[in-house]
Amino acid sequence: MKKIILLTTLFILSFNFSTRAMDFSVAAVVNGDAISNFALFDRVNLIINSSGIENTQENRNKFAAQSLNSLVNESLQRQIAKEIGVEATTDDLNRAILEIEAKNNLEAGGFDNFVASQNITKPALIDQLKAQILWKKIVSRKIYHKIVVSNFEIQDTIDWLSSKNSVKEVYLSDIFISSDDKESETETLRVMNHLVNELRSGKSFSSIAKQFSESENAIKGGVIGWVPIEKLSPDIQKAIEGKTNEVTDPIKVDDGYRIIQIGNIRDKRPEADEKRVTEILRMKKLELESRKFMKNLRASAFIEIRL
Questions:
Q1: Distances from the Cα of 175 to the Cαs of 222, 248, 258, in angstroms?
Q2: Do 178 and 219 touch, CB atoms closer than 8 A?
Q3: Residue 247's beta-bridge partner residues?
Q4: Which pLDDT value is given to residue 286?
Q5: What global pTM score does this model have?
Q6: Which of 25, 126, 236, 240 could covalently link to 232 via disulfide, CB atoms 3.0 to 4.6 Å apart?
C-alpha cells in the first residue's frame, strides 16, 4: 500500500496548543483509522509528566512528533491485534494497574489518586497500557514461536564462556527510537539529543525509557542487565569505554538511535548453563525481530499526517 508521511518542521513549530479547549481535528490517519488532536494532546501530556520533563510549550513542541509516532504505532498494533484475534482484557488491564501500584509503593486501589497526582489523564494512560498489553500478545502470537536458536549458536556461546576464568560485565539500560529514512532520522536524533540533556540534568532514565523507548525492555525502564563487554558491538564498546554511571550520546544503529545508561562494571565467573544461554540468545533475536515486524507494518501501511 502507498505510504504518505507529511511530517515537517512546520508541524513541529505549529504544535502550539496549550490547553485541551480546542476544536476537534484529525492529527493523522492510519489505514483509515483516525488519530485526533485530543489524543495527541493527551499523549504529549502523558509522556512529559510521566517522565519528569518540565511541561513547557517548548518541550511540548519538541516531543509532539515523537508522541504522534507512538500513537501511529499503537494504531497499527490495534489493527493487527484485531486481525489475529487478540485483545487487552479487563483482567489484563487490572494486572497492569496492580503492577503500577506495587512499583510505586501504592496501597491497593491507589491508582486513580496516583494518576491525578502526576497530572496525567487517566484515559491516555489506560490507552497506553492496553497498547503495551496488545503488543506483548502480538509478539507472542506472531513472532516468538518463529525464533530459532541453533545448536551451533548455543554451543559457540557455551564454548566462549567455558574458555574464560572470568568475564568483565557491565550493567546497561537503553532507550531506542527507530528511524525509517533521512527525514525521520533527523527528527529522531533531535529528540534523542534533547533526552540526553534531560537525563544529564538528573531526570529519571527509567521514567523516560518507559515513555520514549521502542525496545522490548521499555516496560522495565529500559533495563538490559549485566552484559559481557566483549559481546557488545564495537560502537557501543567505544561509547562506554572507561565510563560508569553515565549516559552516552545518541549511538547510531542500523534502524535508529540508542542512548545507553552505563552502570557498574564487575568481573564474574561465567555461567555456561545451556538453558540460560538459550534464553539470552532467544530474547536478543526476539528484540530484533519485533523491531523488524513493526518496521514492516509501517512500511505497508497508509499513514497520513494532517497537522
A1: 6, 11, 5
A2: no
A3: 261
A4: 94
A5: 0.86
A6: 236
